[in-house]
């Protein structure tokens, strides 16, 4: 991502639209359209708005993407209506576009509408994490995903776990069929969304964090185990037609730090050879110095080199057992963590993973309860409380007293707090946001993302 604001270029003697377009990685046609030019002739001193991102949106039910600019070239993908594709070139009656798997293809101009963005709105990626239903209060991500593909650039399916009994293997996490996964991947691809399985070491039925840590210790302890796991990751990708993988390893012994970094390095090398994408979900830290036992084992610099996408899990600033009340991700915390990450790797790799959920903090008992947006709104309604938008943290909150006389503070996320986070990642010049998780969000977030933000595919 180039900059967090519009670019105005002043024409110099000898400039041509061709040279300016090449310099800013755009097209002559897009510069002319954005600036209302009817001629390619330029005058020194003339000021031109530069396109930062151009996309085409499919306006027919099914559109073919071809290998070259002509109907005689083979079809390499098909897109459904409203699919959004980044434009990377043009030739006569054809647009060159970038696909979910990073390949390039061509689509006929008459099948799309062109939109040119100059940075007046934040231009960011959006990774939507996808889960199965977790009881009546935590619905499946399915409806949220299929209704809002226009505002999702990647999806991470939290459906696969490192096998506790043999950590080189990957097992299903939850009750679902292969066809269910393949259906989601197909929907994603036809809307130009990158689809990744999330492979994690979390939520084992017994043993808690010790089990999670022991699983990682066995997995990364030697090259033979790491290579066996890598081959199983590749098999998983190929089985479901995924575009790569998101590795979500969280609970790790500090002494396994170097071996964990080696896993990321070796996995990155193996996936690149196959043309697959490596995304890593990494706990938040703000310093090279020991910060906390949860994030200390993660070497940002080495992992940052190994991955294509570095997803910094900014949750939970507040909400962990025993924490005081406050937002799950404040804007200040976000700024601090992402700036540290930027000091360790290219900003273009970094994604800020934020919550769409919140917590109900019982100040009397010290217990914290997970709340979705819907649950938070019902609590506010039940106790007739006005929601306040806390300016310092850029987060909505309210307080109430329950029937037992316990004092509560609720901190959660809504469309306004997510918009502020979108602006922050754009200002910082990082790749974008990730949302944990689809189905728990403020439904008004989606119209906001459509109208006030440009989601980059």
TrEMBL record:
Q: What PROSITE patterns would the database entry show?
A: GH18_1, GH18_2, LYSM, SH3B
Residue ranges annotated for the GH18 domain, each copy included: 124-457
InterPro entries the UniProt entry points to: CFLE_GH18 (IPR041704), Chitinase_II/V-like_cat (IPR011583), Glyco_hydro18_cat (IPR001223), Glyco_hydro_18_chit_AS (IPR001579), LysM (IPR018392), SH3-like_bac-type (IPR003646)
Q: Which UniProt keywords apply?
A: Glycosidase, Hydrolase
Top-rank lineage group of the source organism? Bacteria
Q: Where is the LysM domain?
A: 7-50
Cite the SH3b domain residue spans from the record.
53-115
Family under the similarity heading: Belongs to the glycosyl hydrolase 18 family.
- What's the protein name? LysM peptidoglycan-binding domain-containing protein
Q: Which organism is it from?
A: Crassaminicella indica
